[in-house]
């Protein structure tokens, strides 16, 4: 059915297929329970939701009452969103995620649940957490898992109560001897954390508890995203028994003007090396990362600093006083990390919404995918994080196509044959010799602006050179992922762009171009690019994971066997391809 679903991904996680046509086939019991809940007659809801979306478009502030992705539960679309509470237990990886089982009827958001042995192939199970008690009767929103001593998983998540307030609840597995953790039971003491008149917490800006960590004093700590007026913050709670939680006097950290911090994350990273460490580690061989999904900007930002355990304060490093660095400079939101103690790595999961129109989403019948899980660690410079697809994804590689090192002259287009162009993993490295031809950047310019104004067609000194993917034979459609090199203040800036402006003849799509600078010195290093191509996903890693950009494209011609891949150089200077490997990717079992 790839012909009538050309955009469904083959190896990026998305709602199981049979949730779309016959959603009752997977877990009738649970869904029937849900459907017995009183629901608004369809026609009323439909008009309500259109009216609602109209209101939303008018008044932004209204949306802080309802989370951003709930509006992605368009009528009849089965929206997958935030990854929730990822953990490893019983030799299995558990992924939960925000899901509207009844398509449109938002407010019944549940924690859908899938398990995997390798983070690549996933088996769906019944939803783990769904509205069932007053403290979450209007929805089970995002949260995180913590492994308590004795390896007992505990999930803290946001519930929406009958007054539509956001409160924090606890759920634990009913049966620890079930490695699939199919059944979860909620604390009868829920909600464990709630807005009160005393704590002046805004009940529509209080959500997404993090994985908890254990302090030297034997007390647990957890963060909850919040804001007061425009000051975004990470509220801190402490607990001795993981049940009674006391709000700390001060947030762990806050930034004036940053707006609501959704899906916060707080974790240590080794100063040296690529291994991950447990969330509770706090020694002088780690640094700490504080991340937030900024509701006002719809991007995931992070800062590096140190965690002062005595004061329960995060002190950002110089240059990180504001949220500047992002995990991914494309479409990427509500990400979560977890420590995979099996392979001693920290794994990052992110949600990528659609760039298609609402009408097209309804036609597709699904919306939302997750990126390939990424190992994440601190770059040796200590100034940024590095991300790389987990090595297990390489098991899907088939039929390698390798090209010998060769020049790629200015204006040259090199067609790559022998690869399934809609389902591929491409690695290419470039060497640049004529740096003297690099264009001069007179003044600092945002990378996304540079990429948008100087698309892949505009010739300049050094670049654009890179890949054309989802390219139609006549190049009526193509998505270009490319480098440009500029000279700026006596050094070279390497720009990485993912240009979607020509990706589809269907202009109803969001064709925004994305860009970032990659901290690579072309005098000393090759420029490497890896792009994972998967039907409607272009997930790119520049500089071995120092610059990541995820995009969604919906070509009308360059689909199935009519898509092409090219290497290209539209600069005036020649460049050299020093390494080229491409693989056709096999279909993963993501149901
Ligand atoms: N999505 C969840 C919220 C979170 C938002 C609701 C982020 O908990 O803040 O589906 O996308």
TrEMBL record:
It is a single-pass type II membrane protein. One of its GO terms (biological process) is carbohydrate metabolic process. It is found in: Membrane; Vacuole lumen. GO terms for molecular function: beta-fructofuranosidase activity. GO terms for cellular component: membrane; vacuolar lumen. InterPro entries: ConA-like_dom_sf (IPR013320), Fructan_Metab_Enzymes (IPR050551), Glyco_hydro_32 (IPR001362), Glyco_hydro_32_C (IPR013189), Glyco_hydro_32_N (IPR013148), Glyco_hydro_beta-prop_sf (IPR023296). Keywords: Glycosidase, Hydrolase, Membrane, Signal, Signal-anchor, Transmembrane, Transmembrane helix, Vacuole. The chain crosses the membrane at residues 31-52. Pfam families: Glyco_hydro_32C, Glyco_hydro_32N. Residues 392-584 form the Glycosyl hydrolase family 32 C-terminal domain. It catalyses: Hydrolysis of terminal non-reducing beta-D-fructofuranoside residues in beta-D-fructofuranosides. Its main location: membrane. Pathway: Glycan biosynthesis; sucrose metabolism. Residues 80-389 form the Glycosyl hydrolase family 32 N-terminal domain. It comes from the Eukaryota. Belongs to the glycosyl hydrolase 32 family. This is Acid beta-fructofuranosidase. It comes from Vigna angularis var. angularis.
């Amino acid at each position: 059915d790839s012909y009538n679903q050309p955009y469904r991904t083959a190896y990026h996680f998305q709602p199981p297929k049979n949730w779309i046509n016959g959603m009752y086939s997977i877990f009738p019991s649970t869904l029937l329970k849900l459907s017995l809940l009183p629901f608004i007659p369809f026609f009323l809801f439909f008009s309500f939701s259109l009216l609602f979306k109209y209101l939303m478009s008018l008044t932004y502030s209204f949306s802080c009452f309802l989370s951003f992705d709930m509006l992605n539960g368009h009528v009849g679309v089965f929206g997958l969103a935030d990854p929730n509470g990822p953990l490893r237990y019983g030799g299995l990886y558990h992924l939960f995620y925000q899901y509207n089982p009844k398509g449109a009827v938002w407010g019944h958001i549940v924690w859908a649940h899938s398990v995997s042995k390798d983070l690549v192939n996933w088996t769906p199970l019944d939803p783990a957490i769904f509205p069932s008690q007053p403290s979450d009767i209007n929805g089970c929103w995002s949260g995180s898992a913590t492994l308590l001593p004795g390896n007992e998983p505990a999930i803290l998540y946001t519930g929406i109560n009958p007054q539509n307030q956001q409160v924090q609840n606890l759920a634990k597995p009913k049966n620890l001897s079930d490695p699939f953790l199919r059944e979860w039971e909620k604390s009868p003491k829920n909600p464990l954390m709630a807005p009160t008149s005393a704590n002046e917490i805004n009940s529509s800006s209080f959500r997404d508890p993090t994985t908890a960590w254990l302090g030297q004093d034997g007390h647990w700590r957890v963060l909850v995203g919040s804001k007061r007026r425009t000051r975004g913050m990470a509220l801190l709670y402490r607990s001795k028994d993981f049940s009674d939680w006391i709000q700390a006097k001060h947030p762990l950290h806050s930034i004036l003007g940053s707006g609501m911090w959704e899906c916060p994350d707080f974790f240590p990273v080794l100063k040296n090396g690529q291994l991950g460490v447990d969330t509770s580690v706090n020694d002088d061989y780690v640094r700490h990362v504080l991340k937030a999904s900024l509701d006002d900007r719809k991007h995931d930002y992070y800062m590096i600093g140190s965690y002062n355990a005595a004061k329960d304060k995060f002190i950002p490093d110089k240059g990180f006083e504001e949220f500047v660095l992002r995990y991914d400079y494309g479409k990427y939101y509500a990400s979560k990390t977890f420590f995979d103690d099996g392979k001693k790595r920290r794994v990052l999961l992110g949600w990528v919404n659609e760039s298609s129109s609402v009408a097209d989403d309804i036609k597709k019948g699904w919306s939302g995918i997750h990126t390939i899980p990424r190992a994440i660690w601190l770059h040796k410079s200590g100034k940024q994080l590095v991300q790389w697809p987990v090595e297990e994804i390489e098991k899907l590689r088939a039929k390698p196509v390798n090209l010998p090192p060769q020049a790629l002259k200015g204006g040259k287009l090199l067609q790559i044959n022998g690869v399934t162009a809609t389902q591929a993993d491409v690695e290419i490295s470039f060497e640049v010799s004529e740096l003297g031809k690099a264009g001069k950047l007179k003044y600092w310019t945002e990378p996304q602006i540079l990429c948008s104004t100087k698309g892949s067609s505009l010739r300049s000194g050094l670049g654009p050179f890179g890949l054309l993917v989802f390219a139609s034979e006549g190049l009526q459609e193509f998505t270009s992922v490319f480098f440009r090199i500029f000279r700026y203040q006596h050094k070279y800036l390497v720009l990485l762009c993912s240009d979607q402006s020509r990706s589809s003849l269907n202009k109803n799509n969001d064709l925004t171009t994305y860009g970032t600078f990659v901290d690579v010195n072309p005098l000393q290093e090759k420029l490497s690019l890896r792009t994972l191509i998967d039907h409607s996903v272009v997930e790119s890693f520049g500089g071995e994971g120092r610059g990541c950009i995820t995009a969604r494209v919906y070509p009308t011609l360059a689909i199935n066997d009519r898509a092409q891949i090219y290497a290209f150089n539209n600069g005036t200077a020649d460049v050299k391809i020093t390494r080229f490997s491409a693989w056709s990717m096999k279909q993963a079992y993501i149901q």
